[in-house]
Write a structure and sequence with these properties.
Elements (H helix, E strand, L loop, with lengths): L1 E7 L4 H9 L7 E7 L2 H8 L8 H17 L15 H9 L4 H12 L8 H10 L10 H17 L6 E4 L2 E4 L4 H9 L7 H7 L11
Parallel strand pairs: 1-2
Antiparallel strand pairs: 1-3, 3-4
Helix pairs in contact: 2-7, 4-7
Pfam families: DSBA
EC number: 5.99.1.4
Catalytic activity: 2-hydroxychromene-2-carboxylate = (3E)-4-(2-hydroxyphenyl)-2-oxobut-3-enoate
Length: about 210
């Protein structure tokens, strides 16, 4: 069975949409869920997140709402966004990062309109996953998130969601067609043109402000 790693952060609406579209992929692909801190990726690659640029923030929310409706995916933005996803990432790790736990947390955040900062939400999720709240504060859980984020950066992950299949990275909720094409024919990334793109020279660079 072919293996893949799916990197995500609960703060991303695209990660939620991407999760529900993973079902479009063939059942022979075994996916491991890898929680990462999106802010850590942004800091490393010196980027801004979509919600940090006001016009892009508005576009993101509209685009995700439209995409969800198009694909028949239940979707409702939380009461405030962006939000602190740390406790939810730690909850996923404490629960073993299994698909059931990851889906339950995403659903609570992206289908109910709930306030992610409300301590009752994380408490309810922790209870529903049969975990002791103290598990979220264990140093091993905190370290696992940090190490997982560092590992993702080392693999070249720059955003979420990202699917890693044998070292080939596919970024975005809209990458499913690309992923399927690669699974059908891995050679599509080994063509002369794809090889040329890998070493394409930089023609100009933006000056630092």
């Amino acid at each position: 069975m072919q293996q893949a790693d799916w990197y995500f952060d609960f703060v991303s609406p695209y990660a939620y949409l991407g999760l529900l579209r993973l079902g479009e992929l063939p059942p022979g692909l075994e996916i491991s869920f890898r929680p990462v801190l999106f802010a850590g990726l942004l800091n490393h690659w010196e980027q801004k997140g979509p919600a940090e640029i006001p016009p892009k923030r508005s576009w993101t929310y509209r685009s995700c709402t439209w995409q969800a409706a198009r694909h028949g995916i239940p979707f409702r933005l939380p009461a405030a966004h962006p939000f602190n996803s740390l406790p939810y990432l730690r909850l996923a790790l404490a629960a073993g990062s299994g698909g059931h736990a990851v889906r339950r947390i995403f659903d609570a955040l992206w289908t109910t309109g709930a306030d992610p900062s409300d301590p009752r939400l994380i408490a309810e999720l922790t209870h529903s996953l049969h975990l002791d709240p103290a598990e979220l504060s264990r140093q091993e859980v905190k370290d696992a998130l940090r190490i997982g984020t560092e590992h993702a950066i080392a693999r070249g992950v720059f955003g979420v969601p990202t699917l890693d299949i044998g070292g080939e990275l596919f970024w975005g909720a809209d990458a499913m067609d690309f992923v399927q094409a690669y699974l059908d024919n891995p050679g599509i990334l080994s063509t002369a043109e794809m090889q040329r793109l890998a070493t394409l020279p930089v023609g100009a660079a933006r000056r630092p402000l």
